[in-house]
Amino acid sequence: MIKEKGILFVLSGPSGVGKGTVRKALFEQDTALRYSISMTTRNPREGETDGIDYFFKTRDEFEKLVSEGELIEYAEYANNYYGTPKTYVQQTLDEGKDVFLEIEVNGALQVRENFPEGVFVFLIPPSLEELKDRIVNRGTETEDKIKARLEAARDEIDMMDKYDYVVVNDNIEHAVKKVQSIVVSEHCKRTRVAKQYKQALEDDEK
Ligand SMILES: Nc1ncnc2c1ncn2[C@@H]1O[C@H](COP(=O)(O)OP(=O)(O)OP(=O)(O)O)[C@@H](O)[C@H]1O
Ligand SMILES: Nc1nc2c(ncn2[C@@H]2O[C@H](COP(=O)(O)O)[C@@H](O)[C@H]2O)c(=O)[nH]1
After folding, report:
1. Which residue among 38, 53, 71 has the greatest number of ligand 2 atoms within 8 angstroms of its CB, and so is best to mutate?
2. Number of Cβ within a 10 Å radius of residue 83
3. Does the annotation flag 17 for ligand binding?
4. Residue having the nearest C-alpha atom to atom 5 of ligand 1
5. Which residues bind ATP (predicted)?
6. Which CATH number belongs to the domain containing residue 153 in this structure?
């Protein structure tokens, strides 16, 4: 019997909108999803652990991964590289497990080219003022970096039409429920049972 492949879910959106917060809350409820830990050249923030939050790499190490074709996508964002490891994603999908990426917009659009069957979700803030408050209150970025991230946010939000779904993160609980509904619904749509129903209906019409 041929094993059905897993689904690739991509959550994207401007810095500070709450992607990480929503993803972590979603993973507390949905244990079937697998999170792909990204590679980055940025320094760890307080409380971040190598191999859990990111695989922290030097620029040389990262560039070697790129040249060896080890990443599905990568992007330079706020003066650092970020990228998605190829082997983990492909192996996990081949095992029939769903993979969840949390990445910025340029990377997501590269993934779209190679995985057109993926499910692309864009998280937006209730307003740009609220986005600014969230990044500032998180307290992880310097003033310059906040400015750069907010500038990038405008161009990123312009790209939301390229996604399959747009979810407003006004309230964490609601946003998680919406993302979870997307996961469940896409799963139902693509499973063997759904295909069998479709086939049975087609046979019935003959
Ligand atoms: N719905 C919400 N209402 C209020 N605050 C929120 C909400 N969602 C997230 N936050 C807060 O906003 C801040 C940014 O959230 P988070 O770090 O998850 O964003 P992000 O999109 O992952 O950012 P980045 O792309 O920079 O990693 C955090 O302090 C988080 O607690
Ligand atoms: N293109 C990619 N973007 C990624 C990846 N992992 C994370 N990110 C995004 O980068 C920015 C900044 O992240 P931060 O942790 O420094 O705040 C944010 O939008 C992340 O979602 C990746 O593998 N590829």
Report:
1. 38
2. 24
3. yes
4. 134
5. 13-20
6. 3.40.50.300
Among 104, 136, 146, 160, the mutation site with the greatest number of ligand 2 atoms within 8 A of its Cβ is 104
Q: Is 49 helix (H, G, I), strand (E, B) or coil?
A: coil
The alpha carbon of 17 is separated from its chain's Cα centroid by a whole number of angstroms, namely: 13
**Ligand 1 site residues, Cβ closer than 6 angstroms:** 13, 15-21, 134, 137-138, 169, 171-172
Domain that holds residue 181: 8-35+97-205
The protein residue whose alpha carbon is closest to atom 1 in ligand 2 is 107
| Count: domains in the chain | 1
The pLDDT tens digits for 103-158 are 999 999 999 999 999 999 999 999 999 999 999 999 988 999 999 999 999 999 99
**Per-residue tokens: 154:** 């405008």
pTM of the entire structure? Answer: 0.93
**184 in any annotated domain:** yes
DSSP strands (E only) in the chain: 8-12, 34-35, 39-40, 55-56, 71-77, 80-85, 99-102, 119-124, 165-168
User: Atom 28, ligand 1: which residue's CA is nearest?
Assistant: 138
For β-strands 99-102 and 119-124, DSSP reports them as unpaired
**Is residue 145 a part of any domain in this protein?**
yes
* In a domain? residue 139: yes
Residue whose tokens read 């307003």:
127
Q: Establish if 66 belongs to a structural domain.
A: no
Contact 104 CB / ligand 2 (< 6 Å): yes
